[in-house]
# Entry
Amino acid sequence: MFWLYAFLFLVILPLISYIVWKLVWGPVSPSFPKVLAYHKVTGFEFGGTWMTKKRFISSLDYLLDSGFCFITEDLFLDTVSGKRIGSGREILMTFDDGYRMIIESALPALEERKIPALIFMVTAYAGRENRWELRLPGRRFGHMGWDEVRDLSARGFSFGSHSRTHCDLTRLEIGDLRSELYKSKEEIEKAINSPVRTVSYPFGRSNLSVRTEARAAGYEAAFTLYPSGKNNRLDPFDLRREGVWIIDTCGSLGNKLGQGKLFWAEDLKGRAINRVAGLTPFFKGKSSLDLRL
# Structure
């Protein structure tokens, strides 16, 4: 009986999972740039969206040693618009939430290696502590202030919107949705005196209404994490990113980027993690404080 269960678990279940994955999502376009999504680079915290500084630096060196090159937001958007063709070895580095800790824990390593990065700000929390995550112990992290944003912009880092208050945009009335998209864009543009071209949907959640309003707000592209459609589909307002979590190693990172035969397993893992993270707004609800900020 043990061997039967082992056979089902080790052979049949993965085979069924692979078949379902191939039918529903399938492989990504081999030539389109990959996009990595990081959040916190810090020590232990009760959550999965963090990575230690040591592991983060190791991942950068692994990717560079593997022949990948990192591109700017401008070059990425030129690829999206069809002005250029990607090489298949290009990566856009992104950070969601704009946490202050990454200024010391992540950005010096990027500057040392001349790696550009796109940072998505939750603008109503600029200079404030995080109050939109679940209230677990040790999860009060500060967000960058506007002076820090201006300094990093002058040093070559790009900035995009991650909404104003990190709400689930799909649950908002049209007026609140427009406020989240339009005002966050205006606030960042005022700070850096430069156009904000991209937005990252909080929790990776969007629908047709959200994508329509993002386009109307003047963004050129919008990022999620794992779109619901085929992986080789290119929708400028539903762009795929690879989430990077504390459980990821250099090996799993290589699989995320299509360097191994287990991309399908990494894709399913990422989708499962993102589904769990997407429960946050349902547990938190729509905070009245958030909407007043």
About this structure: The first strand starts at residue 34 and ends at 38. The two ends are 59 Å apart (CA to CA).
